[in-house]
Amino acid sequence: MNPSPELNTTLKQLRLSGVLDSLEQRNRQAIDGQLAYTEFLAMLLHDEVARRDQKKLRTRLARAGFAMGKTLETFDFDRLPNLNRTHIHDLATGRYIDEKVAILIAGPTGTGKSQVSIAVRG
């Protein structure tokens, strides 16, 4: 489906050009599911909100300068034998968030604090 040039222009003026990414798929779903116009519009707007949220997250992560791709699976626990693995894996469950418990990761330079904090972030 190729939307009309007027639709492209209008979506760009409204800063909704991301809608074009899912328009064809959502239009097909609306036709196949015999959805009401409002349901179709709601799906498109939900897609746009989700797209913007993802863009904000990517932007914030880029600004934060996090080294992406760091995981607990790649963490070298053998290099730090005194580190309590159980505590680290417990942090990774995210339970501290539900329990509203603050955590502090501290230690000397080069001990993996950044990697652990990146790996357990929610």
Question: How is this structure best described in words?
Answer:
This protein has 122 residues and is mainly α. It has two domains: 5-64; 72-120, no CATH class. The protein has helices at residues 5-13, 19-32, 37-64, 85-92, 95-98, 113-120. α2 (19-32) packs antiparallel against α3 (37-64).
Number of domains: 2
Portion of residues in beta strands equals under 5%
Low-confidence stretches: none
Number of strands: 0
Distance between the termini: 38 Å
The tally of helices reads: 6
Helical content band: 55-70%
Counting helices, strands and paired strands, the structural category is: mainly alpha
Order of helices and strands: HHHHHH
Tell me, rounded to a whole number, the average pLDDT: 87
Largest sheet: none
Gross morphology is elongated
Topology of helices and strands:
Layout: H1 5-13, H2 19-32, H3 37-64, H4 85-92, H5 95-98, H6 113-120
Name the descriptors.
122 residues; mainly alpha; 2 domains; 6 helices; 58% helix
In short:
The chain has 122 residues and is mostly helical. The protein is 58% helix and 0% strand.
